[in-house]
Amino acid sequence: MQVDFKKIAKELAIKANTELRKDFLKLLREGFRKEKNKRAKKILKIILENAQIAKKERLAICQDTGLPLVFLEVGRDIKINKKIIEEINEGIVEAYKEAGFRASVIDILTKKISYNSEFFNIEFVNKKGLKITVFVKGFGSENKSQLRMFNPTTSFKEIEDFVLEAVKNAGPDSCPPFVVGIGIGGTADTALLLAKKALLERLDTPNPTPFLDKWEKRLLKKINSLNIGPMGLGGLTCLKVRIKTKPTHIAGLPVGINISCHALRSKSKVIKF
C-alpha cells in the first residue's frame, strides 16, 4: 500500500489551523450556553462565530498559526524511517505556504524564519496502523508553561496550589477560556510532555481513571472560581482540566503544566496498512 504522507500531513496542517476539534467545540458551546456574565458571553459568541467563519472560508482561526508539532503513534506492523518524517514535514511546509499561514518558526541564532516543522514525538503502541496528529501550538499559551520538581512527600493540595498559581500567572494572556493539561511523573521533560499530550486527549468524556476524573473536576471548579474570563473580563476561564501520569523516581515528583488557548487546534488521522 502506497501512502502519500506529504498529502496527509498537508491536509492535517490546514484543518488544524482552520477547524476546531469537535470535542473542544462542544465544550465551548456548552460554556457559552451556561455563561451568565454578559461581557464574557458576548466574547464567547464572537469566538464561536470566528471558528465558524474560519472553517467555512478555510481561514486561520488565529493569526498565530503556531509551532506545528507532530505526534506519531506507530503500530506494531509499521516501519518508521527518516523518509516518512521528511515527507510529513514537507506536507506541513506546503500547507503553510499555500494556505497563507504565518511562518512562526525562527532559528534562535540566525533569527531566520522558516515553515519547517522539526518537532516530532514518536511513540510505539501495541496496535495496528499509524496515527498522525498535527498539533498547532500558539505561544500566547505555550509561554505560560510551568514545571516544578516536588518532593515525593508532596500532598495533592500542594499540587493544586501550584496549578492555581500557574493559571493566575497565565491570566488573560493565555486567551481564556482555555484547557489546562497537567503531567505528573517521569522526569522533568516527561512531565511537560505528558501535560502537552493531555491536551490531545478527547476532552468531552470523563478521565478513564476515576481518581483523576474527580481531581480534574475539583481543579476545574477552583480554576473557574478565579473568575479571569475571556480577555480578563470575568466569567468562564477554563473548559477542561486533563491530567496524565506516569511512574517516577522515589526521590521526586515532577509536575508539568501546559495551557491551550480558546483555539485548541489539532487534527489526527489513522492510517491502516
Descriptive terms for the model:
single chain; 273 residues; alpha+beta; 2 domains; 4-stranded mixed sheet; 8 helices; globular
Can you put this structure into words, describing what you see?
This protein has 2 domains: 5-138 and 265-271, no CATH class; 140-260, no CATH class. The protein contains 8 helices and 10 strands. The chain has helices spanning 5-18, 22-34, 38-57, 82-99, 139-142, 156-170, 188-198, 210-224, and strands at 67-74, 105-106, 113-114, 119-124, 130-137, 146-150, 178-186, 238-248, 253-260, 265-271. Strand 2 (105-106) and strand 3 (113-114) form a beta hairpin. The chain starts with a helix and ends with a strand.
Fraction in helix? 40-55%
Low-pLDDT windows of residues: none
What is the N-to-C order of secondary-structure elements (H for helix, E for strand)? HHHEHEEEEHEHEHHEEE
- Largest sheet entry: 4 strands, mixed
Overall tally of structural domains: 2
The amount of beta strand, in percent, is 15-25%
Number of strands: 10
Q: What is the number of helical segments per DSSP (H or I, 4+ residues)?
A: 8
The radius of gyration over CA amounts to: 19 Å
So what's the overall shape? globular
What is the SS-derived class?
A: alpha+beta
Strand arrangement across the biggest beta sheet: 4-1-5-10
Round the mean pLDDT to the nearest integer and report it: 96
N- to C-terminal distance? 6 Å
